[in-house]
Amino acid sequence: MSFRAGPSVFKDRSKVSFDYIPEKLPHRDAQMQRLFSMFRPVGDSGLASNAFLYGSVGTGKTHTAKRFCEDFRLYANKQGRGFDHVHVNCRQKMGDDAVLLHILKHFDARFPDRGFSIPEKLDSLRKWLEKQQVHLAIILDEVDVLLKKSGSELVYTFSRFGEEAGKGNVSLILISQRRDSIDRLDAAAMSTFRRTNAVEFPKYSEEELADILKTRVGLAFHPGTVDDKIIALIADIASEYGDARYAIDLVESAGSAADAEVADEVGPEHVRIAKAGVTQSDLQERLAELDRNQRLVLLGIARKIRKKTYITTGDAEEAYHVVCEEFHEKRRAHTQFWKYLQDLDAMGLIDAKKSGEGVVGKTTMISLPGIPAKTLSDKLAEMVTKRSKGGTFG
Ligand SMILES: Nc1ncnc2c1ncn2[C@@H]1O[C@H](COP(=O)(O)OP(=O)(O)OP(=O)(O)O)[C@@H](O)[C@H]1O
Ligand SMILES: [Mg+2]
Prior knowledge:
5-stranded parallel β-sheet; 8 strands
């Protein structure tokens, strides 16, 4: 068939997608500068440094850290030093072993998933850093998940990395939405991690959100398609949370709504449509991190729980089987299903609690924290369907 390529308000939609990292982050100069003063010794004299970034959802922690590392590499290179960074999402790579594996794959994409112990992996990392002559900044994002699951040993190991040689060759950037995550570090790790290295990311004000939107709209939309009044309206809506991701999602979605009507520009009604469809928070991003099996399990739960507060794991497993049938997916065994439940629980997507302590045959009850079941099941069904269309390997 021939496609009808109608006009679009977008000039480059990738500029409003969640993985686009802006060259410049308006209103984060102070945080960038703080990071620079902490990391300066890394570039000037090869000493390691640590930083802890905290602030609520969508305040730019992840993207500031990534942008900083990219920019700092140039500075370090000018001082004649190699600098590299790797970003680890601890919600996705849970546990010390998975984190290390992810870091090693940054250097060697074919590093085997199995067969190497943690000390062997650390040794490998050491060799890579020597071979490439780089100082490595490791960004441990959503670090509370790691600390909760595995304790602070790995953080401690990294903060002492390469010290035998007199100078450290690993620096850490820890990120969390909560300031008190840092308190999870044990005494040893805490002593290498000074409290003064905390950088706050406050919620954005309405004016700041408007600035951020303006810059982004300039990159992503055709001129004249998004009026300042529309930007102000979106900034106003998003300012309730101070969340830049929400603001950007809203403008993208409003753009889609305008395109769907083949409108010349984005109007207030498109923003309202967007608002009804976009969930505040990082939901989209978090779901994108799940693998197919985890999505199917969560989809089952989301459907089953619609009119209830809790469901049992038995209910959840049954619902999972129904979903597998619907999407022609081979269902995984019971033990594997449990593992998925634990993953989802650790990621905070579900809340699993033992009920009726002391009662014979006590069961685990599942609830959904915060996210409406309908929103969740719609999003997941869309993701799962898209992948099925991709064919066997899709
Ligand atoms: N100052 C800014 N200028 C431009 N874009 C920004 C700014 N701050 C955040 N953004 C954009 O908003 C989105 C969310 O930012 P980011 O992922 O860094 O937030 P976060 O603080 O890590 O949130 P979370 O706690 O949910 O992980 C990204 O698309 C990012 O590019
Ligand atoms: Mg983040």
